[in-house]
User: What shape does this take?
Amino acid sequence: MTDGTAHIHDHEHCIDTAIARARELCGAREVKLTPIREKVLEIVWRSHKPVGAYDVLDQLARTHKAARPPTVYRALDFLMAEGLIHKIESLNAYLGCGEAGHMHESQFLICRACGTAEEIVDDALDAALDAATKRSGFTVERKVVEIAGVCARCQTL
Amino acid sequence: MTDGTAHIHDHEHCIDTAIARARELCGAREVKLTPIREKVLEIVWRSHKPVGAYDVLDQLARTHKAARPPTVYRALDFLMAEGLIHKIESLNAYLGCGEAGHMHESQFLICRACGTAEEIVDDALDAALDAATKRSGFTVERKVVEIAGVCARCQTL
DNA sequence: AGTTGAATGTTATGTTGTATCATTAGCCCA
DNA sequence: TGGGCTAATGATACAACATAACATTCAACT
Ligand SMILES: [Zn+2]
Ligand SMILES: [Zn+2]
Ligand SMILES: [Zn+2]
Ligand SMILES: [Zn+2]
Assistant: This one.
């Protein structure tokens, strides 16, 4: 397939689930998932491809004329702080988190052919990261792991 | 210490060694380490902190009035292609490679207190990365591993 | 000398992200 | 009920990072 979705599925369901989960979490944490923040979350979730801030802005502006870069960056910052989205540093782009709720280190497989970024959770990998830093006496605050290449699907096309 | 060097050492020696090694490698590969490229390599090597492209430009312009952004980005691209420097994606900055010559995956420990980035080579970590991708049938082309936190030195200050 | 291709010069523009201050909206409480 | 507080958003401007496109120069080879 060429549209970058990892596989055929009911993607509206992905989006709805993510938003419902976000509402729950924000309610429990007593932070505000405002209309703008929710809309930005929905836009980010509309694809399984990382999406740039200015793409988000273009889409947000369709329904929210006052939208400007700070509008978007504030919403993205909030969503990242709450663990609802991640930033892919090597792409300067943002992606919905499928594991929102329990804080975790994000690790991504990024396909240059279809553009998808799959979030993986690999405890052995995470342990190896910790071991590497412990040896140096380094205190970890953030781990960026972004593996670029070609996904299994794209190799068979 | 506050200047961001990892430890007290003869840093001129670091620079000289890196440039000498770069000359060797480029000679052997029959690619051209031109004056501009060599100067950019030296500027990048002047610290153990990742340095932004426009910082490089400012420094390059001192001796090379015609320098413009493309001048710098072309040189940086060349140096990356030859494995002489790395880009730190999470900082949009560039750092000399201490292991130039044998191609390798780069893994960095980035201290937010002193700004240094230490390149580590951890085979167990690299193996864990490969294992994580093999399971998914993903073909790896590039691995970005950037661990941010506080280095051992800065914790004791 | 003439040809060729790589490197650099030059101008302009595209892309990503922040600083700053003004305004608005929700909430608490006198 | 309405003042006073804070969080969120609006609005303008700019900073920081990166590339497109085309012209010119330079070195190497004939
Ligand atoms: Zn989906
Ligand atoms: Zn793919
Ligand atoms: Zn040094
Ligand atoms: Zn440090």
User: Anything to note?
Assistant: Chain A has a mean pLDDT of 92. The pocket of zinc ion (ligand 2) is lined by residues A 111, 113-114, 116, 151, 153-154 (CB under 6 Å).
